[in-house]
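Hi X.,

You mentioned you wanted examples for the new student's onboarding notes, showing what a folding record looks like when two proteins sit in one file. Here is a clean example. The first protein comes first, with its sequence line followed by its C-alpha cells.
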Amino acid sequence: MKIEKNVRLGFVMNEHGIKVKRCCASCAFKDYRDDTRYCTQHHEEVGARARCRKWQMSDGLKNAGNIN
C-alpha cells in the first residue's frame, strides 16, 4: 500500500465533536524512532502530512473533548 505524501488533508469528527486531521500525525500506528515519525504498519519513516488507507484515529484523539 502506498503512503501519499503532502496530500490535501481530510478531516473527521471524533465522538465528542472535535475535528481531527486524517493524516500520519494523528494516526494510531504512528511511532517515533530516533526522533523521526515512523509508521508501524508500513515500516518506514513518514511525514506529518502523509496518509494512507490504513489510517486509524489515535486513542488520545478519540478521547479529545471528553470532560469525564
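Then the second protein repeats the pattern, sequence line and then C-alpha cells:
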Amino acid sequence: MVGNIRKVYDYLTVKQKKIAVAELKADRLELQQEVAECIDDYPKIVREVLLHTLDSWTLEIEQLEDDIARDHGAQM
C-alpha cells in the first residue's frame, strides 16, 4: 500500500506535498497522543499495528519533505 501512495505523491505539486505533510503530521500527533494515553488498553497485536503506523507515517513525512526539498531545488 505504501508503494501505491508514493506513486500518487509523484503527481502532486510542491504545494500539495506541503499540505500532505501538514496533514500527516497532525494525524501522527493525534495517534501519538492516543498511544501515549491508552497503549496498555489495547491487545498486543493492535499495539504493534499502531506503533508500525507511527513509524510508517514518520518515514512518509521524511520522504515527502525530501521530495519537497528536491523539487524546490529543481525549480530554482
